[in-house]
Design a protein that fits this description.
By secondary structure, the chain is an alpha/beta fold. The protein has one domain: TIM Barrel (Alpha-Beta Barrel). It is 41% helix and 13% strand. Strands 1, 2, 3, 4, 5, 6, 7 and 8 form an eight-stranded parallel beta sheet that branches. α4 links the parallel β3 and β4. α4 packs parallel to α6. The two termini are 18 Å apart.
Length: 275
């Protein structure tokens, strides 16, 4: 899966990654309230431009407002459901009781999941290991995994107080898989090699989600699948120049943004891009 990447994962980038092996993509995150206010920037994030499989990633802490938004939402070709973001470490988001502040609120999360299901839509939940080391040490994230019933979970194996340079704690995945009661757990964070993917699969995860590595190489999904024997026969992995040209072709076809294109060109080809 291609992770939601703020300021990068527009329709063009998502389609490029899907063309090179990503099975599912995610929009940039947006507050449900911004949809209700008809905020132009937020609405553009979920504007359908093609049929690339995508889940809309939302921040929400209020099922009433979520229900109001869903009452007027119309699915489109490629729409694969909603993803509840319980992972965002932004201090502003956390002050609003959203993002990683929701990890310990399993009952609230369950109500949000039910609200989405009541409207007939698929739903997934992305979590971190809590707000801080205390919440991680007390395994509060297991309450969500054990008390919520989405179609799948995505677990970013850090807590919200950790910096982007700190390592993920992949040792949590076996207990996460067990707590999820058969609901697939997707591993996220710091996944860059086929060997890491294989190790995670052996822990029982149902898949992996990549963000930063895809910014540098949108074809990393096919590369991983080739190395792991998933693609049979292996699929060609394009050069950086080929990917730039393909990006431009997609952008022209579906009306991409020059602002997003400029950011993409700055990071594609880097081994460890920054955002």
């Amino acid at each position: 899966m291609l992770a939601s990447l703020e300021r990068y994962s527009d329709s063009v980038f998502r389609t490029l990654c899907y063309s090179h092996g990503a099975d599912l993509t995610f929009t940039e995150m947006a507050h449900v309230e911004s949809f209700l206010r008809r905020n132009r920037v937020s609405l553009e994030k979920i504007e359908p431009r093609d049929a690339t499989p995508v889940q809309i990633q939302v921040l929400s802490g209020n099922e009433g407002r979520l229900d109001r938004f869903l009452s007027s939402f119309k699915p489109f070709d490629g729409f694969m459901g909603f993803n509840l973001n319980l992972s965002c470490p932004s201090k502003d988001v956390i002050r609003q009781g959203k993002g990683a502040a929701m990890v310990k609120r399993a009952e609230k999360t369950a109500r949000l999941v039910s609200t989405i299901r009541d409207h007939g839509h698929p739903v997934s939940v992305k979590i971190r290991l809590g707000l801080n080391q205390y919440e991680k040490d007390n395994r509060l994230y297991l309450n969500n995994l054990g008390g919520v019933d989405p179609d799948f979970f995505v677990v970013h194996a850090k807590h919200a107080a950790q910096s982007s340079d700190e390592k993920e704690d992949n040792s949590v995945y076996p207990e996460c898989v067990e707590a999820a009661r058969g609901i697939p757990v997707i591993a996220n964070g710091g996944i860059e090699t086929p060997e890491m993917v294989q190790s995670l699969v052996e822990m029982g995860v149902g898949g992996v989600m990549m963000g930063r590595p895809a910014m540098g190489n949108p074809a990393i999904f096919d590369y991983m699948k080739n190395e792991l024997g998933v693609n049979n026969p292996p699929r060609p992995v394009p050069t950086t120049d080929d990917l730039k040209q393909e990006y431009d072709d997609i952008s022209e076809a579906i009306g991409g943004s020059e602002e997003y294109r400029s950011r993409f060109l700055k990071v594609v080809g880097e081994t460890r891009p920054h955002y």
